[in-house]
Amino acid sequence: MSRTAAPKANPEALLREGVSMNRTIGRQDEAALALGAKAAVSRAAVAKGGGLASRRLWIGVLVVALALAPMVAGNFTVSLLNDIGIGALVALGLVLLTGIGGATSFGQAAFVGIAAYASAWLTTTQGMSPWIGLVFALALTGLSALAIGLLTLRLGGHFLPLSTIAWGLSIAMLFGNVDALGRHTGLSNIPPLSIAGASLADPRAIYYLIWVIVGLAFLFSSNLLQSRPGRAIRSLRGGSILLASVGEDAYRVRLSLFVTAALYAGLAGWLYAHMNRFVSPSPFDVRASIEYLLMAVAGGLGQLAGALVGAALVLVMKNALQDVLPLLTQRAGQLEAVAFATLFILLLHFARGGLMGFVRRFTRGRFAAPTREASGPVEPLPHRTLPERGTPILSVNGVVKRFGGLVAVNEVSFDVNAGEILGLIGPNGAGKSTMFNLLTCTLPMTAGQVRFLGHDIAGMPQRKVARLGLARTFQHVKLRPHMTLLDNVALGAHSRTGSGLLKAGLRLDRVEEQQILQEAQRQLDRIGLGDRAHELAGSLPLGTQRILEIARALAADPVLLVLDEPAAGLRRKEKMALGDLLRKLREEGVTILIVEHDMDFVMKLVDRLVVMNFGSKLVEGVPAAVRADERVQAAYLGSVV
Q1: Rounded (5°) CA angle 629-634-639
Q2: What is the pLDDT of residue 56?
Q3: Tell me, what's the pLDDT at 49?
Q4: What is the rounded distance in angstroms from the CA atom of residue 354 to the CA atom of residue 296?
């Protein structure tokens, strides 16, 4: 009995069949992901609407409660609420400076004292109005903060907090040793505030002024954080290189934030002086600064509401201890310090997010601040005029970089032409990353010249190079994980706009902000993440984070996009998606320089290649010629193939 011979398998046919099957499965996966994304967006929209309504409800309840408090509370409670409002102002500045900006200060009480003494001196010895005293107090506090910040904010690590302790001590000692300020006895008979002839000497009378100022300060801070300078402030913890890559100076941002926090403390000091009508050095020493910092930590350093919650918690607890401890011991003062130290340690161990951190976990973000998005089409941000395709835009001539006796880059030269993708490749240790840092001015070069759009950028600050139109990504992704995709991309448009801190806080930047958000949404749509704009960047997988970094760079409207090993750590499908995106950008006229060690990924993507090995340029040419070069094969494989 004969058998029919089985046909021989055709490898090419099997390969085509496998590819077809993979594509079918991939389309099914993509469809499932799309449905999931739409469902997630719908859930997010519902949660966002409910969260905004709940947040407004609780704010309304708080406002009504504060408005009615003097009508139902006793004198002691009203005075305590006044102290809480003043403390919340100082703590609010610390939430911005320390919690969000990452600069710890143990000297905020000194700024309270500068403003309090300034207004007290002007009104008692010069007979001026307290309202003129407000202007003088804020001016003196701002100038003092500016001078101190210029001297200390460049310090890193633990040196900055130590310096704040030093000037906090010195300013408090200064108050006690100046005759014109009453030395240690202080200044008394400070005139009360008055509005339209009505005196605010009574705690109930000044109560509403204090809380109106507190409310305006919180509103200003909220507006600020949801703006162009606010995104820079929220990115400070990402490091100075991140901010420089979008054209901003981290030191300048930190200095402006430091002065802002000091002005909040100055407002508190002015209110303190004219509410108590007496000032002396002791309420403005380092111990008071630690108490203010404890307020911010107890409430929650990462959230504005933490300043109010923390001030209430610390001052209520302080008053309770002052009532209870004398009943238990004759050393109530010492035990009060021990109790607060214990509270501080417990907070650091068990509640680093403060009370608002507990609330946030309990409510799961239902009361989070509303996200902003483009409310309607506005005139787009202006775009650069790109050079004609084929025009040299970056010229590298004889660049050398030495680290002591090590030559990391040795006499490397090449050009990048408009409208192409140029690959800079080489094995590990070839000097690619060093070359990348030289091109983006993250590192100074030892010798040679780099010209970008006709400018010699050697030695130029990175932020100025970014403003010329050179945008970059990072080998190790630098996104702000607690910011949304939209805000991360909007940060990239920082150098294309100019609204400052005051304009943002007063909401005078609405048109520009809508332009920024519209541009950010356009770039998210461009890379296929438009429907995920309000997700947090930290929730994305690595491959999507790398693509999001490209979107942030594109928001800068660059002439040249420089990518530092964008395929590192990506799986095959993620590399394919990245390659498709980069080809699409090239078709749209974007010039790309890609620094990579994955030869297979780059060979299928670029127009030309520059290969480095041991810090020197090995070969330059089209991918086919480079792949066939024996020197390249030897560099990658260790032997000639």
Answers
A1: 130
A2: 77
A3: 46
A4: 8
Beta-bridge mates of residue 471? 561
The whole-number pLDDT of residue 431 equals: 87
Tell me how many degrees the CA angle 105-106-110 measures, rounded to the nearest 5: 105
Tell which residue, 535, 520, 528, has the closest CA to residue 581: 528
Per-residue 3-state assignment (H helix, E strand, C coil) for 577-630: HHHHHHHHHHHCCCEEEEEECCHHHHHCCCCEEEEEECCEEEEEECHHHHHHCH
Q: Residue 603: what pLDDT?
A: 87
List, for the chain, all residue ranges whose pLDDT scores fall below the cut of 70. Answer: 1-53, 333, 362-376, 637-641
Note the pLDDT of residue 158.
80
Q: Alpha-carbon distance 377 to 380, whole Å? A: 8
Q: What angle do CA 394, 593, 559 make, to 5 degrees?
A: 55
Q: What pLDDT shows up at residue 18?
A: 38
What are residue 586's phi and psi, to 5 degrees? -60, -40
3-state secondary structure 449-470: EEEECCEECCCCCHHHHHHHCE
**Distance between CA 516 and CA 154 in Å, rounded?**
30
Bridge-based pairing of strands 421-425 and 591-596 is parallel
Nearest CA among 481, 461, 605, 487 for reference residue 551: 487
Please state, in angstroms and as integers, the Cα–Cα distance from residue 17 to each residue in 8, 241, 470, following that order.
15, 48, 44
Helix or strand or coil: residue 339? helix
Say how far residue 430 (Cα) sits from the centre of its chain.
33
In the three-class reduction of DSSP (H, G, I as helix; E, B as strand; rest coil), residue 533 is classed as coil
For strands 194-195 and 198-199, give the pairing: antiparallel
Helix, strand or coil for residue 317? helix
Please list, in sequence order, all residues whose beta carbon lies within 8 angstroms of the beta carbon of residue 584, skipping any fewer than 6 positions away. Answer: none
The per-residue pLDDT for range 300-353, each reduced to its tens digit, is 888 899 999 999 999 998 888 888 877 777 777 677 778 777 877 887 777 777
Q: How far apart are CA 610 and CA 602, in angstroms?
A: 11
Integer Cα distance of 604 and 348 in angstroms: 52
Residue 349 identity: H
Q: Are 67 and 78 in contact (CB under 8 A)?
A: no
For position 632, what pLDDT does the model report?
A: 84
Cα 392 to Cα 415: distance, rounded to the nearest angstrom: 6
* Model pLDDT, residue 463: 93
Distances, alpha carbon 65 to alpha carbons 4, 68, 73, 74, 532, in Å: 91, 5, 11, 15, 38
CA angle 606, 608, 611 (to 5 degrees): 105
- CB neighbour class for 565 (10 Å; exposed up to 12, middle 13-18, buried from 19): buried
* Angstrom distance (rounded) from CA 602 to CA 177: 70
Is the distance from CB of 127 to CB of 194 less than 8 angstroms? no
Report the distance separating Cα 516 and Cα 534, nearest Å: 15
* Alpha carbons 328 and 331: distance in angstroms, whole number: 9
pLDDT tens profile 516-572: 999 999 999 988 889 999 999 999 988 889 999 999 999 999 999 999 888 887 888
Q: What is the pLDDT of residue 557?
A: 92
* Exposure string for 474-511, b = 16+ CB within 10 A, e = fewer: bbebbbbeebbbbbbbbbbbbbbbebebebbbeeebee
What is the 3-class SS of 112-181, one letter each residue? HHHHHHHHHHHHHHCCCCHHHHHHHHHHHHHHHHHHHHHHHCCCCCCHHHHHHHHHHHHHHHHHCCCHHH
